């Protein structure tokens, strides 16, 4: 019984995703502990992004069950919900492998769009908004305050009024995380947040994720190839290969797992039998 | 500049001009040089070699001058520069041609241009000149001096536009005041009888501005390409006409109902097409527009089919009608009766309706729903990942746009007093869309300029018949070459922490439906 099984925020059970004849994810089960940073790693094409798309509702899984248990005790079965409800009600937010910011809108506007649902209910079908009632104005002030808080955290407060597409790549990555955080998520899914970052930006990203874990009621799941990020900050690592889970444990345990080494580095022909014996195939 | 450079440029220019002159000769040999004339016993060919010679000389000289003095290699060849130069050279060529024609005509008696028409040349000259001047002035005044490249730093964009900020601030206010004053200026200037035609034109322009603003919500903000917008205009017009015909309701009672019905139709249309994007969405909306028109045309018992509906009531001012007699507007206010009163009233009604449209749109843009529309245009998948219900957001855009279309439609019905399906053909949708696209997607002031130029200009030069289409097409091509994202393409942010500077059009997405 490991720590993340005690009080999981996200439980994936027997998840299978088929595209025609291709089995992208095969009978995958794992738990994400509350308040943990969980890394999902594996070689290219292992099915990591497919798992993310199933969890966030962009794909409907062929089989399996995905459950979110919020800290309030509410439970949501994600495989039955449309994507926008997963973000709005179940509070699972995500970022994308290829950044999807609203490029023609300013940095601040991006963060305001993320707070659409609370603002929308405050604007009472836009009527309170059109007539400028104080109820809506207060809600908007709160939203700007929240945006300002996150802009401070990602160090972009000076560029709040610039179009998002004008930001350098690393800043765009951080802004996308801040935008997801503005929805107030219980689970934050990051798809390769460190891709294309230089070592300094990578370190800043680590600090930001550690901060989120420490200060907010948000558990982080991330897909990452950058081992410096994975090994340094994650509490729990799950390794996928060809749509199946091949390892699940602490970073130290996973690092020395021969199956993981074999999947990542490959094995010379003459060693195949030896390794297979070792991993028990 | 050294002598050899000048010499080589002279040589190159000479060669280039000679080629241009040769091409002109080949073209004008048949086009200008020969003309069939009716004479006794049949047609004869009239040879006009003098006109050919003039044309060739004008082209040669003009090209040489341009090569030597204007098209210098060191001047930057931006699209703007080239377009202005193209316009100026057309203008210059026409002026030279006209002057030469007059000059030769006085002592040879053989005017080369006479064959083309009497005053048409003057008119074409005037229109082309006006079009070019209007385009240049519009761009210069409205602060579209944005750089084509992206600004180098966060401060760059701010400094570029700082000089235009005061102008942009009072511009809408000034336009609004001008719009309020228009009827009085016209009557003062042309008298009640003479101004009627122009007031009618102003009402038409305002109707299209309102339609443009309505469509701007759907196409400009939400990025949903709607080719059937005229359907909602028709729904609004027919709602009012039928409600008044069957239930005897008046304009002010029907106005909200017409808007409501049009909004419902917007949602009915919107729902099935939500999954479609881009071209597919455009085709289906186009078909929907046609369906509405065909139904109106064929449901004879209910809508009167091609006969249309006549006798639609005129709007009243709190129950006061604009009629001759003791109960009429003129008598109650102690004025002499004049039919212009109703026209002025109609003008203010549509002005108020258009301003309300504008106010609501501007407000909606700054509300969460407006930001969601724009976010939808930028990236639909990101919207869904942020918990935005894209179905409802798209439907709200369709319904809001359709509602304003319905209001405008019911105004159209009350102004005309007669409607038939003829008024709601696809070409109307195309014109409204052209206004939005030429003005700049998402820009309120751009729609005003485009509507004034397109509808106003189009009606103003009605006497010129065929040529106006030519000039119209030329104008559209020029705008699209020179400003592919419309006259006003800068996007203004909806909220700012410290400042709100425009966002260059290159960064803003057009939306895929």
Short description:
The complex is a heterodimer of chains A (281) and B (513). By secondary structure, chain A is of the alpha/beta class.
Helix content, binned percent of chain A? 40-55%
Which secondary-structure class do the elements of chain A indicate? alpha/beta
Secondary-structure element order of chain A, as H and E? HEEEHEEHEHHHHHEHEHEEHHH
In total, the number of strands of chain A is 10
Low-pLDDT residue spans of chain B: 111-118, 141-164
For the termini of chain B, the CA-CA separation is 55 Å
Order of helical and strand elements of chain B: HEEHHHHHHHHHEHHHHHEHHH
- Assembly state (oligomeric): heterodimer
% residues in beta strands of chain B: under 5%
Q: Biggest sheet of chain B, open or closed, and with what strands and sense?
A: 2 strands, antiparallel
Q: Output mean pLDDT of chain A.
A: 89
Instruction: Give the mean pLDDT of chain B.
Output: 80
Radius of gyration of chain B: 27 Å
Q: Pick out the low-confidence regions of chain A.
A: none
> Between the first and last Cα atoms of chain A, what is the distance in angstroms?
25 Å
Given the C-alpha coordinates, what overall shape of chain B results?
Answer: globular
Taken from the alpha-carbon principal axes, the silhouette of chain A is globular
Characterization of this structure:
The complex is a heterodimer of chains A (281) and B (513). With 281 residues, chain A is α/β, with parallel strands linked by helices. Chain A has 13 helices and ten strands. In chain A, α4 runs parallel beside α8 and α7 (134-153) crosses α8 (169-181). With 513 residues, chain B is mainly α. Chain B has a two-stranded antiparallel ribbon with strand order 1-2. In chain B, strands 3-4 form a two-stranded antiparallel sheet. In chain B, β1 and β2 form a beta hairpin. The relative contact order of chain B is 0.12. Residues 111-118 and 141-164 of chain B have low confidence and may be disordered. Chains A and B meet through α3, α4, α5 and α7 of A and α12, α13 and α14 of B.
């Amino acid at each position: 019984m490991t720590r993340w099984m005690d009080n999981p925020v996200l439980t994936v059970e027997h998840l299978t995703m088929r595209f025609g004849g291709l089995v992208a994810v095969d009978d995958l089960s794992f738990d994400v502990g509350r308040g943990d940073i969980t890394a999902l790693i594996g070689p290219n094409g292992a099915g990591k992004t497919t798992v993310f798309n199933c969890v966030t509702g962009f794909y409907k899984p062929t089989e399996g069950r995905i459950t979110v248990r919020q800290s309030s005790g509410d439970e949501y079965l994600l495989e039955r919900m449309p994507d926008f409800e997963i973000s709005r009600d179940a509070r699972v937010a995500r970022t994308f492998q290829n950044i999807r910011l609203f490029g023609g809108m300013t940095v601040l506007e991006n963060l305001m769009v993320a707070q659409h649902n609370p603002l929308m209910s405050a604007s009472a079908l836009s009527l309170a908004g059109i007539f400028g009632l104080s109820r809506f104005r207060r809600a908007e002030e709160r939203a700007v305050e929240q945006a300002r808080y996150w802009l401070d955290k990602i160090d972009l407060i000076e560029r709040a009024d610039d179009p998002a597409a004008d930001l350098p790549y690393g800043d765009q990555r951080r802004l996308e995380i801040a935008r997801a955080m503005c929805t107030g998520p219980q689970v934050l899914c990051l798809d390769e947040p460190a891709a294309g970052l230089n070592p300094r930006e990578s370190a800043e990203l680590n600090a930001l994720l550690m901060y989120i874990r420490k200060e907010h009621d948000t558990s982080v799941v991330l897909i990452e190839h950058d081992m410096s990020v994975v090994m340094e900050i994650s509490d729990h690592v799950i390794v996928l290969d060809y749509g199946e889970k091949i390892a699940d444990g602490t970073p130290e345990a996973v690092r020395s797992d021969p199956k993981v080494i074999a999947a990542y580095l490959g094995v010379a022909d003459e060693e195949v039998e030896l390794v297979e014996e070792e991993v028990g195939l | 500049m050294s002598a050899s450079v000048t010499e080589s440029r002279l040589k190159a220019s000479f060669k280039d001009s000679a080629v241009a002159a040769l091409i002109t000769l080949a073209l004008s040999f048949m086009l200008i040089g020969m003309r069939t004339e009716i004479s006794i016993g049949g047609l004869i060919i009239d040879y006009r070699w003098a006109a050919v010679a003039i044309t060739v000389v004008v082209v040669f000289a003009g090209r040489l001058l341009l090569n030597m003095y204007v098209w210098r290699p060191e001047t930057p060849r931006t699209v703007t520069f080239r377009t202005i130069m193209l316009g100026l050279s057309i203008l210059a060529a026409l002026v030279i041609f006209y002057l030469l024609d007059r000059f030769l005509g006085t002592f040879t008696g053989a005017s080369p241009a006479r064959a083309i028409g009497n005053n048409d040349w003057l008119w074409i000259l005037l229109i082309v000149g006006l079009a070019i001047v209007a385009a240049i002035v519009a761009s210069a005044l409205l602060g579209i001096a944005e750089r084509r490249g992206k600004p180098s730093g966060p401060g760059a964009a701010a400094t570029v536009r700082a000089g235009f900020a005061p102008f942009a601030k009072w511009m809408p206010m000034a336009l609004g005041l001008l719009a309020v004053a228009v009827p009085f200026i016209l009557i003062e200037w042309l008298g009640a009888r003479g101004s009627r035609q122009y007031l009618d034109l102003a009402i038409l322009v305002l109707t299209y501005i309102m339609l443009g603003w309505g469509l701007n919500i759907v196409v400009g903000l939400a990025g949903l390409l709607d080719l059937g917008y005229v359907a909602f205009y028709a729904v609004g017009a027919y709602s009012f006409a039928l409600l008044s015909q069957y239930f005897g309701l008046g304009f002010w009672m029907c106005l909200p109902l017409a808007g409501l019905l049009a909004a419902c139709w917007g949602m009915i249309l919107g729902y099935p097409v939500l999954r479609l994007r881009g071209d597919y969405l455009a085709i289906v909306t186009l078909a929907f527009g046609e369906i509405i028109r065909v139904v109106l045309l064929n449901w004879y018992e209910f809508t009167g089919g091609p006969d249309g509906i006549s006798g639609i009531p005129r709007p009243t001012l709190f129950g006061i009608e604009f009629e001759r007699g003791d109960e009429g507007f003129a008598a109650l206010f102690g004025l002499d009766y004049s039919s212009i009163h109703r026209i002025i009233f109609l003008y203010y009604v549509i002005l108020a309706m258009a301003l309300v449209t504008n106010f609501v749109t501007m407000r909606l843009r700054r509300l969460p729903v407006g930001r969601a529309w724009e976010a939808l245009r930028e990236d639909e998948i990101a919207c869904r990942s942020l918990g935005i219900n894209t179905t409802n957001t798209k439907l709200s855009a369709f319904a809001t746009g359709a509602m304003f279309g319905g209001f405008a439609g019911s105004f159209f019905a009350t102004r005309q007093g007669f409607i038939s399906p003829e008024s709601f053909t696809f070409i109307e949708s195309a014109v409204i869309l052209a206004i939005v696209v030429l003005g700049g997607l998402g820009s309120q002031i751009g729609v005003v300029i485009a509507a004034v130029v397109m509808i106003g200009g189009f009606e103003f030069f009605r006497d010129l018949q065929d040529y106006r289409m030519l000039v119209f097409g030329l104008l559209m091509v020029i705008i699209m070459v020179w400003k592919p994202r419309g006259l006003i393409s800068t996007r203004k942010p909806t909220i700012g922490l410290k400042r709100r500077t425009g966002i260059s059009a290159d960064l803003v997405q057009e939306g895929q439906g």
